Amino acid sequence: MGMDDSTSFLPGPLATIVCDLTGEKTASILGAFLVAGGYLISSWATSISFLCVTMGLLPGLGAAFLYQSASVVATKYFKKRLAFSTAIARSGMGLTVLIAPFIKVLIDLYDWTGALLLLGALMMNLVPSSMLLRPIHIAGENNSDIKNRGSRLSTSHPGAGCATEMPSCNETGEATATRDGAMQKARQPGTSLTVSQNKNTDGNSVFLITNEESYEKEAISWSRKPKLFDISLLKNPFFYIFTWSFFLSQLAYFMPTFHLVARAKTLGIDLMDATLLVSVAGITETVSQIIAGWVADQDWMKKYHYHKSYLILCGTTNLLAPLATTFPLLMTYTIFFATFAGGYLAMILPVLVDLSGGSRIQSFLGLVAFFAGMAILSGPTIAGWLYDYTQTYTGSFYFSGICYLLSSVSFFFVPLAEKWKNSLSR
Prior knowledge:
By secondary structure, the protein is mainly alpha-helical. The chain has one domain: Up-down Bundle (Growth Hormone, Chain: A), CATH 1.20.1250. Helices cover 69% and strands 4% of the residues. A 3-stranded antiparallel β-sheet has the order 1-3-2. The longest helix has 30 residues, at 48-77. The radius of gyration is 25 Å and the shape is globular. Keywords: Membrane, Transmembrane, Transmembrane helix. It is found in: Membrane.
């Protein structure tokens, strides 16, 4: 646990603004440079405060941009299989337990300065990975379908605009006329138009799309400057439901992980066996996320029910953890907790998408991440204070279990929030 763990969530609102202004791909590339640059600059560190900035703040800020960008793009790429795809993307986080032995080998071979330089070079691989986050401009129909439907619109509604795709419609006059004409036609019953503008090196491309079946919905969508802060979130009860749960679950998550090895040592368990517990937890969590994501996509019930169930099981497991006083019992606790924790971690983004409703995913995720960052920063601190006060690690597991149980409470209010939302739409 370091500063970068909390700073990867705390700058969530800033990451939202950067993604809105530059796009997810550019924001992700910027995050990759921040992470790599932080490790490279750390090789010249001369003090702990220097490392707090270069190994904590910079990589953490870069991780926030990477996480925000990847999460938002995943919601755009995947609809039907969002939970499974998100679980696969997150599953690598459970294997981070393998990084510690790898870093130790690098330090033994190249000293700590050489190890940091190599880590920085490895992080540069995030740049080409970020370039793969290509935006989606048109969904549902290909260009030929759009052209055909646009031609039919031009025939049935004269003056609707230029051709369906106009890379150079006199660049100003005709393109503007197309937009104005489309907006006028959108007001006519029976026809719904969507006008989108794509900017590229050749100029502006204006697309005119008709959809007679959806005229009751929003008719016109035109590129405009994004909102830097979505105030509508504060009026959304689902935002408070999810934020309450995410805050408490992240407050509880790092406590068992942080004190698992220390508790094993106090019970007289060998250090190598104690560290094995962490490795097993990471591998189990990885497998659990993938399975939980696949199960959630089967739509046997709403995803927030899975999320709520996993949180309750995590809480119950941690409340029973002090009963594990031998290595086999600690291993049993570790496997069960990692299984349930992997399940709820796989549900975070799909549940957020389901509950966000009409709110923008970027703003919803960014603001929620800010509160989660505060929880991640506070959790280990509270766990350390509990040990200093009680001189036992059982307090951390009890506190973690209570937080998990409380984090599930807010999801019991989802039906009430849905009724309230439906009453407003009537």
